[in-house]
Amino acid sequence: MASKKIRRRDLIQQVVQERGGVSVGALADMLGVSTQTIRRDLDILCGDDALRRAHGRIELAESKLNTPFDQRAGTNLVGKRAIAEVAASRIPDGATLFISIGSTVLSVARALHRRKELTIITNNLSAAMALSEEVSNRIIVPGGEVRLPDRDFVGEEVVDFFARYRAQYAIFGTAGIDADGWLLEFHQSEVRATEQMRKNAKQSILVIDHSKFGRLAPAAGGNLSDIDLVVCDRSPDASFNDLAERHAQRLVFAEKDEK
């Protein structure tokens, strides 16, 4: 099989795993191919009982179907907790910060529970709720429809929302990082939201676990060289040693710091 087909089918599986389900049309737009091509891919992918078709969509099969966000939030808890503590230690009381979507970012929000008088500008409803327990905080969220089950706001309206504010810190994650250090997402609107936060913040903080190195996603955004601080749980696979060395001044390994 051509490597292009393998890569595309891997991306389809990742998107479905990330979101729980997605339409055939959305996949075609996302991957820049025809709906007929996507349907041929689905003929192959639905053969192993992990995925299923449902009314013009592709979804996780019932046996595999967990709440996608909660599933991600429940993985690598030790690593995410270490990342969160390091990132939260950089945020003082009274700071203004952007907080993006994502399970690792939510861990950082939870680690900020000891901070007071924060101004939080976020499209991550779970993060907003976690930080609402401190009544001295001010929390600003966009309007519109909440995406379920992820409990967040996405789309071009969110880009406009972040454009209206300025912050001292922007805390965000990414779906994947390629060998050249490019940050990858599943949709361009997610890229634009992250770029808007980074542009409007004095300091950018990327929080990721080591599994994001080499993880595929179709939309490319910024680069590690654009980020002020990258907090990761531990060193990535040896194939990314050169990349890690090039960015050593901005890259912090949280679990190493805990020893």
SSE topology sketch:
Elements: H1 3-19, E1 21-23, H2 24-31, H3 35-45, E2 51-54, E3 57-60, H4 68-73, H5 77-89, E4 96-99, H6 103-111, E5 119-122, H7 125-131, E6 138-140, H8 156-163, E7 167-172, E8 176-177, E9 182-185, H9 188-199, E10 201-208, E11 219-223, E12 229-232, H10 241-246, E13 251-253, H11 254-258
Parallel strand pairs: 4-5, 4-7, 5-6, 7-10, 10-12, 12-13
Antiparallel strand pairs: 1-3, 2-3, 8-9, 9-11
List the main descriptive attributes of the protein structure presented here.
alpha/beta; three-stranded antiparallel sheet; DeoR/GlpR family DNA-binding transcription regulator; DNA binding; 13 strands; 259 residues; repressor; WH_DNA-bd_sf; 2 domains; 39% helix
Please report the first level of CATH classification, the CATH class of the largest domain.
Answer: Alpha Beta
Number of strands: 13
The total number of structural domains is 2
Largest sheet: 7 strands, parallel
How many DSSP helices?
A: 11
Low-pLDDT runs = 63-67
Shape: globular
Structure description:
With 259 residues, the protein is α/β, with parallel strands linked by helices. It has 2 domains: 3-65, Winged helix-like DNA-binding domain superfamily/Winged helix DNA-binding domain (Arc Repressor Mutant, subunit A, Orthogonal Bundle); 71-258, 3-Layer(aba) Sandwich (Rossmann fold). It has 11 helices and 13 strands. A 7-stranded parallel beta sheet has the order 6-5-4-7-10-12-13, with helices on both faces. A hairpin with a 4-residue loop joins strand 8 and strand 9. The protein is globular. The termini are far apart. Mean pLDDT is 87; it is low at 63-67. This is DeoR/GlpR family DNA-binding transcription regulator.
